[in-house]
Amino acid sequence: MDADEIKQVKQKVLEDVDPPTKKKKKHIRRMSWLRTILEFAAIIVVICGLFQIVMGISYVEGQSMYPTLHDKDMVVYKRRQKAYAPGDIIAIDRPNDEEFVKRVVAVAGDTVNIEGGRLYVNGKEREEPWALGETKAVKNGIVFPITVTDGEVFVLGDNRENSEDSRMFGPVSISDTKGRLVWYIGKL
Predict the structure, then answer these.
(1) pTM, whole model, 2 decimals?
(2) β-pair partners for 175
(3) Alpha-carbon separation of residue 172 from 33, 92, 93, 106 (angstroms)
(4) Would residue 64 show up in a list of annotated catalytic residues for this protein?
(5) What pLDDT, in 10s, does the model give residues 4-25?
(6) Three-state DSSP class for 126?
(7) What value does the mean pLDDT take over residues 60-74?
(8) Catalytic one of 12, 22, 24, 64
(9) Which of 10, 78, 102, 124 is catalytic?
């Protein structure tokens, strides 16, 4: 044994028999645990704050966004994003405390028309590789063509034949949007 090893053994024996040294070691252990718990709590608070201020979570209900998203998929959206472009998927607050997840197809100034099972924006047929089924106007829905005004977006579900969207309730006010989807998780 060299001198360092002997010193470590003496220190260990001293800790085992000397009450003040034992008490000090116990205190250091407790403080270490307390620090770990406080760091963990701080991380939880930061994550919760992040989701209250910057990010949000919503769930897809039904098959309206199929095949892109499925029933019960969880989506994470960015709250501060209020400038949308056609193709963005957004979370929307509806009047009866429902949340919808839909795709933006037109923004302020765009004229939307649905004719012959196809979507036209500003007179041009919109190519939508994500859309499933025909895009048809809805009985007792809005009258086409319609121009989206400032502060609004026109949204549709990807599953056009099975979606409650702007064809029924008209353009959505930007103030009723929660944010743009940044990623999603399958069924939980």
Answers:
(1) 0.74
(2) none
(3) 51, 8, 9, 11
(4) yes
(5) 888 887 777 766 666 777 778 7
(6) coil
(7) 93
(8) 64
(9) 102
